[in-house]
Structure formats: structure tokens, C-alpha cells
Design goal:
Helices cover 37% and strands 20% of the residues.
Length: 228
């Protein structure tokens, strides 16, 4: 009964942490690695200071983040890239966490990502699989429903496997749990964070790494704008 009395306060508490933590201003950040400079460039979310780390001096490990909730216990294992930023006074150790957090496969996702980055730095992108094309931007409503569509598609694939229907007494409760702990939070995040940008790099780093956004030329005929 005591716990039930606190349930109506949860939205207010979550909103307080959301705005106090600055998540409404930035949804996260990226790291960038340049093969010629052999540097790693990183900006912490909701900050502006650019950190530059030497690739050859990085210490690498798979992190361990325990998660205990009412639905059970899990752990995440992001890839930690740790180095010294010598541009700071005094030189300071910086940790950049990245990659698949490995909710179910332990540290295997972190290890595979590190191997992927090593191959890129040694041989370039030619020997690596091409990334999937970026899907077109969806509306807020479509983005909110996408986690449920992915959940339904995954459940259908599971049931279509040999003996999939016979295992439904086990798979259905597991997938309902996955709906609550993964699809529902992702859906809420997609709705709230729809227009929240990622942390931006300085323009010189965008230019160096080939991510500079080139402005399209403006063409006007008789004063009317024509999109190229």
C-alpha cells in the first residue's frame, strides 16, 4: 500500500530528473576517429569542450553497469575508451562510453565493436561491411509506434521458428516482459526526444572527418525559389 501511494508521484519525479539532468537539451553524443591524425574526438553530452585523445594510447575495456528493477536484474556492458586529454590543465583522464550496451549478450557486443574499430584504423573501411542505409525521418507519431512494430515483428519471427508455437507458454511471457522494459521506454523516449538534437562537433572537426553539412545552392527564377 505504501508503494502504491507513491505511484502517482512517479511522473513528477521522472520529469524532475529529465529537466534537471539536461536531457531536454541533448539526447547524447558521438565519438569520431580519424585514421590520418590517429586521434579520437569526443564531446560530452550537454557540453561544448572538445576532448582529443591519442588512439595509440587508449585503454579499452568493457564496462559493467548493473540494473536492478522491479522486473528483475540485468546488466549493460558499453565499450569504454579511456585516454588522457593533454590540452586540459592539468592533463585529465577522459572516458568515452560507446557502442551496443549488451543487455543480453554480456560483453560480446563491446568486444566486437572494438575489433571493428581496430580493423577500421588498420585497413580502412574497405574490408568492413557497409552500414545499413539511414531510413528517412519519420513523423513523431510514427517514431513513437516504431518500437512496438519492431517488437511485434520480432515476436512473429520467434513464433515462425520450428516448434515456435509449442514454446509459446515460455516465449509469450518473456516477450511481454520485453515489451515493458524495452519497447515501452523506447516509445516514450522517441516521443519526448523527437526534436532534441545530438551534441554537435566544431565545424573544423566536421570538415576534418567529412561530416560537414554542405548548403544547397539557392536557385531563383523571376524571384521564385526553385529547389534543386
Amino acid at each position: 500500500m505504501d508503494i502504491a501511494l507513491y505511484i502517482p508521484l512517479l511522473p513528477a519525479i521522472i520529469s524532475l530528473f529529465y529537466f534537471a539532468g539536461g536531457a531536454h537539451r541533448s539526447r547524447g553524443g558521438f565519438i569520431r576517429i580519424h585514421r590520418e591524425t590517429r586521434k579520437l574526438y569526443f564531446i560530452y553530452p550537454r557540453q561544448k569542450r572538445l576532448h582529443v585523445l591519442d588512439w595509440d594510447q587508449l585503454e579499452v575495456l568493457a564496462g559493467f553497469i548493473p540494473i536492478v528493477s522491479a522486473s528483475g536484474y540485468a546488466s549493460r556492458h558499453p565499450l569504454y575508451l579511456i585516454g588522457i586529454d593533454y590540452s586540459m590543465d592539468p592533463p585529465t583522464e577522459i572516458c568515452a562510453a560507446c557502442g551496443n550496451l549488451g543487455l543480453f549478450d554480456g560483453d560480446r557486443s563491446a568486444r566486437s565493436l572494438w575489433s571493428y574499430l581496430q580493423v577500421f584504423m588498420e585497413r580502412g573501411p574497405d574490408d568492413l561491411p557497409r552500414p545499413a542505409p539511414i531510413p528517412p525521418r519519420q513523423s513523431r507519431w510514427q517514431s513513437t509506434l516504431q518500437p512496438y512494430r519492431d517488437w511485434r515483428a520480432g515476436l512473429r519471427r520467434t513464433l515462425a521458428k520450428p516448434y515456435g508455437l509449442l514454446k509459446t507458454p515460455i516465449t509469450i511471457p518473456l516477450w511481454l516482459g520485453w515489451l515493458l522494459i524495452n519497447a515501452f521506454p523506447d516509445s516514450v523516449e522517441a516521443f519526448i526526444q523527437y526534436n532534441v538534437p545530438y551534441t554537435q562537433f566544431p565545424k573544423e572537426i566536421d570538415r576534418l572527418c567529412g561530416f560537414e553539412v554542405k548548403r544547397k545552392p539557392v536557385i531563383r527564377v523571376d524571384g521564385e525559389r526553385i529547389d534543386p
